[in-house]
Amino acid sequence: MGICVRVSEDCRGGTPWPPLAALNVSPTVEVPRRRGGHGVPPLQCKTRAFVLLVGLLVIQACNRGGEDSHGVVVVNAPEAGEIRRVLAREGMEIVEGQPIAEIAIYAAAQRAPSAGPDQKQASAAINLQAAQAEIESARNEVVRYEVEVQRLTPLVSAGQASQGELDGQRALYERAQQRLQKAKTAAQQAQSGLVSARQQSLNSPIAAPSPVEQIVVVRASASGTVSALNTRVGDRVIAGQPLATIRAR
């Protein structure tokens, strides 16, 4: 006695399932007989047939799932930058190494440091401040010694102070006046230097270094069909960002 299992067509697409012979499975389930000539109970026979049918379904599902997930290649951005050109489109057939997009990468230009007009202007301003501070200090010194000379002059006439003490204060007073004159001369020179540096800055401005643009070409890593394109011109991308998906042949 045997039980036959009939395999029907796929209800979703009307496609016949693979022949049982291709799956190396016998279409007939042989049911052994008991001692005494009686067969296996009907419930046990139906259970074995059901197990066989489920096994066939699992085999076919595995085969179909393998075909759907095979050959998908994702192309990522090699560098961060801006998409300058897109050279592929969805549905396009491409070969390995074919350009898909171009990414513009910007790097600041390297320039040797130099003393520009701004630095000269700053240096002239510092010199002027120092000269003005020297003028203020020398002026205070002149005033102090002048007051001391004026105080000692009548005292010397009255015999209450010595002439040597008065002469010493007069010498200090003259030295303070010389220091004040030198400070004023230095301040005038610093002022002229500052005016010259400002004029040079206006006449010869130094432009900021412009960034250098580098183009990186994104190429297909496999031959096939572009199934998805995830970027467009002007997009900012980062390194490793998916740009396209290819279904490889």
Describe the structure.
The chain has three domains: 2-68, no CATH class; 72-110 and 212-248, Beta Barrel (OB fold (Dihydrolipoamide Acetyltransferase, E2P)); 117-203. Helix content is 44%, strand content 20%. The chain is α+β, with helices and mostly antiparallel strands. Helix 2 packs antiparallel against helix 3 (163-203). The model is unreliable at 1-34 and 64-69 (pLDDT under 50). The strands form three sheets. It has a four-stranded antiparallel beta sheet, with no helix packed on it. It is rod-shaped and about 140 Å long.
Please trace the helix and strand order, writing H or E for each element.
EEHEEEEHHEEEE
Order of strands across the biggest sheet?
A: 3-10-8-5
The biggest sheet amounts to: 4 strands, antiparallel
Distance between the termini: 50 Å
Number of strands: 10
The structural domain count equals 3
Number of helices: 3
Give the percentage of residues in beta strands: 15-25%
Rg: 50 Å
Summarize the structure.
The protein contains 3 helices and 10 strands.
